[in-house]
Queue: 2 jobs
Job 1
Amino acid sequence: MNTSSNGYVLGFAVSVCVVMSSMLAFTATSLKPAQDAAAEFDRQKNVLMAAGLATATDTRSQKDLEALYQQRISELVVDTVDGAIQKGFAPRDVEKRNAEAAAKESDKAKKKAAMTRYRVVAVAKGDDGASSYVLPISGKGLWSTIYGYLALADDAATVKGVTFYKHGETPGLGGECENPEWCATWRGKSILDASKKLVGVIVKKGKVDEAVAEEKRHKVDGLSGATITSDGITRFVKSDLAAFEPYLASLRK
């Protein structure tokens, strides 16, 4: 066999590629259940953190935190059009129902809106028995889509906690959005102004002036050196709160 021939070299290269790709595909398929389970646990822990039931440095085991989630958290599906709770389908069916709703629309803008019509809210029970409402939030920062959870107290207007757990922002700059110390500054902020109009939580450029009532009530310190990330967070938090506003307004009544 002429191991220097073009045919041999090409055949050898193809064989190696086929074997390696098969091994990688097998490994990826084998690990997917474990990866999905880890992602689900990370999601649950962030819901617990936003609701004040766990911390970023929590020493409890995964088993204990998963049990806590089952005990204290209930999930429901909300129609963002009218705020009605959907009792006919489970949270795991949301993507399917949104796709069905989008398929019924012919207008491109309406089709896009329908893709997020039904959304999941986590209702958390605190140690004092009071409820808090944990809303999924996400949107563009500078380099990436930022994902998080925002928890509102039982008045459906005051921030109880926030987490930003998945993003591709610059470490030390926009990446500081996941810093527990910065997230803690959101607690107690109101998403409504004095006239009950939605204003969200504003990430200010610079430091909040505590002497100015409106800033103290609605704003948090900006992320140093990350103006675009800060502005993005302000935008998408308000946008997601607006989507949930029909549901939140029904709670306030």
Job 2
Amino acid sequence: LTCACNLNKTKNHIQLLKFISETDKKIELNLIGSKLNTQIKYFYKLKQISFNLNKKQNIKINFLGKRKRNYIRSFYKKTHVYILPSLSEGLSVSLTEAMSSGCICLVSKNSNHSNVINSKNGFIFNLNKKSFLTQFEKICNLNKRDYVSIRSNGYNTVKNLIQKGYKLKKNF
């Protein structure tokens, strides 16, 4: 799993960690982004929860810090699932970049992403454990054909957004 965004309360990382701690799947979560100086307490709480989860055999959480766009885009190529558990969000550039790179996307319903993500190009979860685990399990159980189809549909969704005038910060 990869999540690329600022590490702050509205991005809802702590809730995400609580959700993934409930699965028996082997998970490596890569958090790309920087902490905000205004939310130091949140960041240290996130680090403490991560430290405790890293003690579990099936979970590994990596803090990769702030990275340049080229690094992030190349990282997406190696990522199976992009996740964005935001409490509130406009249309995220990182989401569209992840989709265009072939990631399966899992996003919270409380964001504007539900206008972009649908059952054919990604997965949406309500901000509760049951919904998250249900959608995550669906991703884990995708057959090869559906996996390829969802990735392709995600790519095409971003292509259509660009044709309609949406601009990515970096060339698609």
